[in-house]
């Protein structure tokens, strides 16, 4: 199944097989909405979606194939997704970079 994770909102965009709306969007709280190819709301409790990601999902059609279906953007492994909170924790534990004036010798 084609699936993309929005880089800012972390909402999941995927092809919906049931015919309600071609794009199913699920936000981080688990709310779900259905949208057409232009990101216009069709149903569900989530009312907004990124139209560009909706177009990406719809571009390949109901079956994978063609240039859109072979795009690496659609190859999302849920096990490899990083929790944004863990990225912040990792960044806070990294070694600080010294200021250029601290590097001067002389």
Concise synopsis of the structure shown:
This protein has one domain (3-89). It has four helices and five strands; from the N terminus they run βββββαααα. The chain has helices at residues 51-59, 66-69, 84-92, 100-103, and strands spanning 3-5, 12-15, 23-26, 32-35, 41-44.
β-strand percent reads 15-25%
Low-confidence stretches: none
Helix-and-strand structural type: alpha+beta
Mean pLDDT: 76
Backbone shape: elongated
> Rg to the nearest angstrom?
19 Å
Helix content range: 10-25%
* N-to-C span: 61 Å
Strand order of the largest sheet: 1-2-3-4-5
Report the count of strand segments: 5
Put simply, the count of helices is 4
Structural domain count: 1
The largest sheet, given as strand count, sense and whether it forms a barrel, is: 5 strands, antiparallel
């Amino acid at each position: 199944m084609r699936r993309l994770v929005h880089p800012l909102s972390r909402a999941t965009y995927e092809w919906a097989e049931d015919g309600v709306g071609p794009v199913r969007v699920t936000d981080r709280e688990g709310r779900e909405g259905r949208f057409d190819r232009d990101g216009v709301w069709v149903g569900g409790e989530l009312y907004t979606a990124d139209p560009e990601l909706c177009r990406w999902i719809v571009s390949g059609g109901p079956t994978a194939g063609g240039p859109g279906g072979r795009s690496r953007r659609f190859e999302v492994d849920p096990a490899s997704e990083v929790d944004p909170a863990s990225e912040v924790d990792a960044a806070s534990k990294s070694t600080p970079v010294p200021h250029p004036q601290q590097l001067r010798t002389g």
